[in-house]
Specification:
It contains 6 helices and 7 strands. It has 197 residues and is of the alpha/beta class. It has a 7-stranded mixed beta sheet, with helices on both faces. α1 packs parallel to α6. The chain binds 5-O-phosphono-beta-D-ribofuranosylamine. The site of 5-O-phosphono-beta-D-ribofuranosylamine (GRF) has 13 residues, from α1, β5 and α6.
């Protein structure tokens, strides 16, 4: 049997997608292992989850660095020393340089709360409501140098209700994110596992 894919999860906040992926990766038939959390914010709720779950977490505070390159150099060190094969960005709110993303080409995936290519960037739920969109949702995609760009792996549609607020819509989209990310992870893991020595 091939070795499990070593997965790092990058996050900046509450970490509900990370938690969902952690639960998925803990299943014996999933060919991946969650070996490292990485947060750029020491106060992120997800840090506490890693501690409670006994998963090493590298807290790499971007504010402590003068340049993006120096910050990413320390991220690369942490990822290399944990022998990471695949990165899942899950609410990681720092732009990554093209060099970083290219280094991890097809081995870094991201979740975004919209039906890409619609609504790249922030405040996706409010923008969808302002436009009168009837359908909204989420996408898991391979990361490319351009923000919120790259081949889509899984999308989930969420109907917009007439009385939705950005918060009610966000809650329903988040529930679908928690379905989409494990599905997408399975697809990527299967590809990577077949390439493992
Ligand atoms: C999610 O909506 C994700 O799509 C977006 O940021 C949010 C993170 O939520 N990029 P959580 O930290 O995973 O709970």
């Amino acid at each position: 049997m091939s070795k499990p894919v070593r997965v790092a999860i990058l996050f900046s906040g509450r970490g509900s997608n990370m938690e969902t992926l952690a639960q998925h990766l803990a299943k014996p038939d999933v060919p991946g292992q969650f070996v490292l959390g990485v947060s750029n914010r020491p106060e992120a709720g997800g840090v506490g989850f890693c501690t409670r779950a006994n998963i090493p977490c590298a807290v790499i505070d971007h504010k402590a660095y003068d340049t993006r390159e120096d910050f990413e150099a320390d991220m690369q060190k942490a990822l290399a020393s944990a022998r990471i094969d695949l990165i899942c960005a899950a609410g990681f709110m720092r732009l990554l340089t093209p060099e970083f993303v290219t280094h991890w080409h097809n081995r870094i995936i991201n979740i975004h709360p919209s039906l890409l290519p619609a609504y790249k960037g922030l405040n996706t739920h409010k923008r969808a409501l302002d436009d009168g969109a009837k359908q909204h949702g989420c996408s898991v995609h391979y990361m490319r140098a351009e923000m919120d760009d790259g081949p889509v792996i899984v999308q989930k549609h969420v109907p917009v209700h007439a009385d939705d607020t950005p918060d009610t819509l966000a809650t329903r989209v988040l529930a679908q994110e928690h379905v989409a990310y494990p599905e997408a992870l399975d697809i990527v893991l299967e590809k990577l596992a077949s390439q493992q020595p």
